[in-house]
């Protein structure tokens, strides 16, 4: 093991020197490193199982083991997770956020000095890390030459001022003309114990009658620099909490607006703190990168970033002496990058420290364009035995004395007022809402949307204890005795066979689910006559599916063919040729029967045996859709379906027409500037459909809902990227991938934004501005949430999930439909003219109305033909909950099937020899005639009682938009269009749809 440590040190040294590890002399020990890590992980897991076993035995009288702890040893499990995460580091990757959170949050947590010592006169001997001098060149990718470099300049400001006003005047005399403030606040977990000496053992974020250290620092900086801030707008961000860790920042306001003055900064800080879950680790890189983004967006105005934190950047115990930890390296790189912009960085240290490492960190940052970073010990200055006003002046001076010289440096370097156009485009998360509304489970209780502080924030802060010192880790993990012998030296010798038994049981369960059960099920299916590719261990056929999909999507389609089946479903296309129209394939350990015969689809729609259920989504898809109308079953689905029917059918749909017309009118006004030019309509229709669903369902507009749409769109792309991934059952409860963590953050952001929107609606009723919640979909949901009848009431999660579903489906479906209609009509201009003639006959130049829309037969034919060739979804999956006979197929319990929509829609036996051609005439006598009286052959919006609740809404919106476009414009296909259909939830044009507009 010692040898492995030495090899790993050499390996990581090569990485730090920008050498490719596999090209070094240590390549031969690469497998040994992995084996060592694996053995270490197993060893830690065995210790965890051992601890759990004895903790359980200690509850019974016949055991002698003390019952000190009965919970699993989380520190051992976390250590095992750290071992697993190190594989990423060895491969040149990054620590996962989950594993980074498990790293020691402060280097000084390993040596807590006694409270009897003076806070500022200790040597901090337990941990003295020396930074290299000069720093390794790999930490700074800029040249060290003298070009455009300024040496550190210290201001000539005197240090004998007694008031903040005198400091402000001195800054002005020293040459500071203007500055814009940015504030970053540290919300890492260590804030709960680093006020042990300096803040009476309270959390540094304690909210009480007196100001805590963070509030004091904000107040002093604000009083000093407010006169130099031209607009008094202050961007404020938090970092290090459970939603951001060391990767992101969150804005103080959900809509990302800035605070107006430091009074509002303090007020908003007090509102946010009770909502937060402190976490870690500490890295200043995200907030510095956020500040760079703001400077770039301001076209190079001078800014001062004030970071207030309780500790130095996280440095874990396994960081080699003389090297930087991942968090330190990112922070250094961010500081060096910031020197290319008119940005000064002030780090204000609050709490107990220790701060000696931070001072070394400040002094050893690589050479930069100018010295843009400095550290100030707030606690040391404010603990002096002098008048408070003098202490405040001393702190302000120490923090700001170098600002005038740094401001002048930006002038000399010609970076002030310059836009570089290459800043990191960071987008802050919304503030966390852990204690948000909808927590009431009984209608008699308050159901206000006002947030309630989480339980940890209400505990007595004075009871917060410092983290355990390093001595605590050198004891027996079972009874916490015999610190001299970690390996069960106190007599707790456990038979290794017992621990291996636990692992063996887990292995048996895994093999049963992933190997034995699928093989037995495949044998049963084969005996029933099912054909298809054989099961491959763990992955099923997903690897082949992914490979075929990547090959088919590698380049655009040749020509303008509508034969998109082999492009979007190449695996099904290949297997259909081999096994026939109905066959079975394996998605991981789950078998899927492919159905593409209308008679079988009709039986599924009838479901007389009640044997079919929706397939519950997993992973990112589950976070995106939740348990709403699209994914639920049973009584819950019935309840949600009634709400949707009320909102999107009949008179409600008719009342939405004016909003649809107004939204389309806004789009067509923009098009006036594109007459005779090319316009990309997929993006135009994305804005249109987002505006329509925002107005009709939520009583808002696209601008207010833009952030929700953006976050949902990111989740859609994440879901598509994970479409063919197979995961261990229950693994997400133990380990989360980077995509899982990103999806969690996006889900949390969407939830916070929706809660904010709903809170506004409720406040209108509470304040008397509205009599009720309204009759739109949002109002119906709120009414159902406040319903006193248990059978009609919906939960908080139902409320959020339904909003997400409508935002997503209401925008995406109509967007793609209109885009494909424009493509087809720009190719087939004869049908475009037929549709325009019909619109002019029934509507003339007036705005559409419900009566006129109902008469547009040709337009309906065109929409149906478009849905046939380019349906929104390419398949529908179901789960078999009991053995059932489907046609000639016997489906065992726990099998699955998918309805192949594209094969149904392009079957020559049903649609004729021109099935792959655009011919709306086939729908001239309705869908029944077009499908030869087999309506199950045309299923663009689903089948049976599960048909899409928004189908009529989407068709109605599409008719209105298309009619208004035809009234004003003709259009032809642009030569720049590239035919490349892409399936991401729906079938969309990968590169958009470009057309040339012609005014009528």
From TrEMBL:
Biased composition (Low complexity): 437-455
A GO cellular component entry from the record: nucleus
Amino acids binding heme: 948
Any one biological process term the GO annotation gives: protein ubiquitination
Alphabetical UniProt keywords: Heme, Iron, Metal-binding
Entries under Gene3D superfamilies matching the protein: Cytochrome P450
GO molecular function ontology, one term from the record: ubiquitin-protein transferase activity
Pfam families noted in UniProt: Copine (PF07002), p450 (PF00067)
CDD domains: vWA_copine_like (cd01459)
Domain VWFA intervals: 178-381
PROSITE patterns in alphabetical order: CYTOCHROME_P450
InterPro entries attached to this UniProt entry: Copine_C, Cyt_P450, Cyt_P450_CS, Cyt_P450_E_grp-I, Cyt_P450_sf, E3_ligase/Copine_domain, VWF_A, vWFA_dom_sf
Top-level taxon in the UniProt lineage: Eukaryota
SMART domains attached to this UniProt entry: VWA
PANTHER family, per the entry: COPINE FAMILY PROTEIN 1 (PTHR45751), E3 UBIQUITIN-PROTEIN LIGASE RGLG5-LIKE (PTHR45751:SF38)
Protein name: VWFA domain-containing protein
Source species: Linum tenue
Phylogenetic classification of the source organism: Eukaryota, Viridiplantae, Streptophyta, Embryophyta, Tracheophyta
């Amino acid at each position: 093991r010692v040898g492995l440590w030495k090899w790993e040190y050499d390996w990581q040294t090569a990485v730090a020197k920008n050498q490719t590890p596999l090209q070094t002399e240590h390549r031969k020990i690469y497998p040994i490193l992995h084996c060592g890590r694996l053995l270490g992980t197993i060893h830690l897991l065995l210790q965890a199982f051992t601890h759990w076993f004895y903790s359980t035995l200690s509850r019974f009288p016949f055991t002698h083991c003390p019952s000190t702890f009965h919970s699993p040893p989380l520190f051992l499990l976390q250590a095992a997770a750290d071992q697993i995460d190190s594989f990423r580091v060895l491969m040149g990757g990054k620590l996962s956020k989950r594993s980074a959170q498990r790293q020691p949050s402060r280097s000084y947590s390993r040596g807590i000095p006694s409270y009897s010592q003076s806070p500022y006169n200790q040597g901090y001997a337990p941990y003295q890390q020396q930074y290299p001098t000069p720093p390794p060149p790999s930490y700074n990718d800029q040249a060290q030459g003298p070009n455009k470099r300024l040496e550190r300049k210290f201001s000539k400001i005197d240090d004998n001022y007694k008031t903040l006003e005198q400091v402000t005047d001195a800054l002005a005399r020293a040459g500071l003309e203007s500055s814009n403030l940015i504030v970053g606040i540290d919300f890492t977990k260590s804030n709960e114990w680093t006020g042990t000496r300096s803040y009476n053992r309270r959390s540094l974020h304690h909210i009480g009658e007196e100001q805590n250290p963070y509030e004091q620092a904000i107040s002093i900086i604000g009083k000093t620099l407010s006169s130099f801030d031209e607009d008094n707008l202050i961007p404020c961000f938090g970092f290090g909490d459970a939603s951001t860790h060391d990767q992101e920042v969150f804005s103080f306001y959900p809509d990302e607006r800035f605070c107006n003055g430091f009074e509002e900064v303090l007020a908003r800080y007090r509102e946010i703190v009770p909502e937060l879950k402190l976490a870690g680790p500490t890295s200043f890189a995200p907030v510095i990168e956020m500040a760079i983004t703001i400077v770039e967006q301001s076209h190079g105005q001078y800014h001062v970033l004030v970071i207030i934190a309780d500790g130095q950047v996280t440095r874990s115990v396994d960081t080699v002496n003389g090297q930087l930890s991942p968090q330190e390296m990112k922070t250094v790189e961010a500081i060096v990058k910031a020197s290319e912009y008119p940005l000064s960085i002030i780090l204000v240290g609050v709490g107990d420290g220790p701060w000696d490492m931070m001072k070394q960190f400040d002094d050893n940052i690589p050479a930069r364009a100018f010295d843009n970073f400095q550290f100030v010990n707030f606690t040391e200055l404010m603990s002096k035995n002098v008048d408070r006003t003098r202490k405040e002046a001393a702190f302000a001076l120490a923090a700001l004395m170098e600002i005038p010289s740094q401001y002048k440096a930006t002038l000399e370097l010609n970076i002030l007022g310059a836009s570089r156009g290459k800043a990191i485009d960071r987008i802050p998360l919304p503030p966390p809402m852990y204690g948000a509304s909808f927590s009431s489970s009984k209608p008699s209780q308050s159901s206000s949307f006002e947030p309630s502080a989480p339980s940890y924030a209400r505990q007595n802060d004075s009871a917060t204890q410092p983290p355990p010192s390093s001595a605590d880790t050198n004891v027996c993990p079972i009874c916490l005795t015999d610190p001299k012998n970690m390996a069960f030296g106190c007599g707790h010798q456990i038979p290794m066979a017992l621990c291996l038994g636990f692992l063996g049981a887990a292995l048996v369960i895994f093999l049963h689910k992933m190997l034995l059960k699928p093989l037995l099920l495949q044998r049963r299916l084969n005996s029933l006559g099912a054909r298809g590719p054989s099961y491959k261990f763990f992955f099923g056929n997903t690897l082949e599916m992914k490979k075929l999909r990547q090959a088919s999507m590698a380049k655009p389609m040749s020509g303008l063919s509508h034969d998109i089946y082999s492009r979007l479903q190449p695996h099904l296309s290949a297997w259909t040729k081999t096994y026939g129209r109905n066959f079975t394939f394996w998605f991981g350990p789950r078998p899927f029967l492919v159905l593409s015969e209308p008679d079988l689809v009709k039986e599924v729609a009838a479901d007389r045996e009640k044997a079919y259920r929706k397939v519950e989504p997993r992973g990112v898809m589950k976070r995106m859709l939740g348990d709403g109308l699209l994914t639920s079953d049973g009584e819950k689905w019935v309840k949600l379906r009634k709400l949707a029917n009320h909102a999107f059918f009949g008179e409600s749909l008719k009342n939405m027409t004016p909003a649809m017309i107004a939204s389309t009118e806004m789009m067509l006004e923009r098009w006036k500037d594109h007459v005779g030019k090319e316009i990309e309509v997929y993006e135009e229709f994305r804005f249109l459909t987002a505006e329509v669903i925002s107005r009709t369902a939520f009583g808002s507009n696209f601008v207010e809902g833009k952030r929700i749409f953006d976050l949902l769109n990111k989740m859609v792309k994440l879901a598509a990227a994970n479409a063919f991934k197979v995961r261990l059952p229950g693994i997400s409860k133990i380990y989360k991938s980077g995509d899982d963590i990103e999806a969690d953050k996006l889900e949390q952001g969407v939830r916070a934004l929706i809660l904010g929107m709903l809170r506004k609606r409720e406040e209108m009723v509470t304040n008397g501005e509205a009599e009720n919640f309204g009759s739109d979909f949002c109002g119906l949901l709120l009414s159902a949430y406040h319903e006193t009848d248990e059978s009609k009431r919906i939960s908080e999660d139902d409320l959020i999930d339904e909003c997400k579903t409508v935002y997503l489906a209401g925008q995406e479906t109509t967007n793609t439909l209109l885009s494909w209609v424009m493509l087809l009509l720009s190719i087939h201009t004869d049908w475009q003219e037929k549709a325009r003639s019909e619109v002019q006959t029934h509507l003339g130049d007036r705005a559409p109305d419900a009566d006129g829309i109902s008469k547009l037969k040709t337009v309906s034919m065109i929409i149906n033909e478009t849905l046939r060739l380019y349906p929104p979804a390419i398949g529908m999956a179901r789960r078999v909950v009991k053995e059932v006979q489907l046609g000639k197929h016997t489906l065992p319990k726990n099998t699955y099937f998918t309805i192949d929509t594209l094969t149904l829609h392009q079957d020559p036996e049903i649609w004729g020899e021109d099935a792959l051609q655009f011919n709306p005439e086939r729908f001239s006598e309705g869908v029944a005639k077009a499908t030869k009286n087999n309506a199950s052959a045309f299923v663009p919006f689903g089948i049976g009682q599960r048909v899409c609740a928004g189908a009529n809404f989407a068709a109605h919106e599409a008719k209105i938009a298309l009619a208004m476009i035809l009234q004003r414009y003709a259009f032809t296909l642009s030569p720049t269009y590239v035919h490349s259909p892409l399936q991401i939830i729906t079938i969309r044009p990968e590169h958009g749809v470009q057309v040339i507009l012609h005014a009528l």
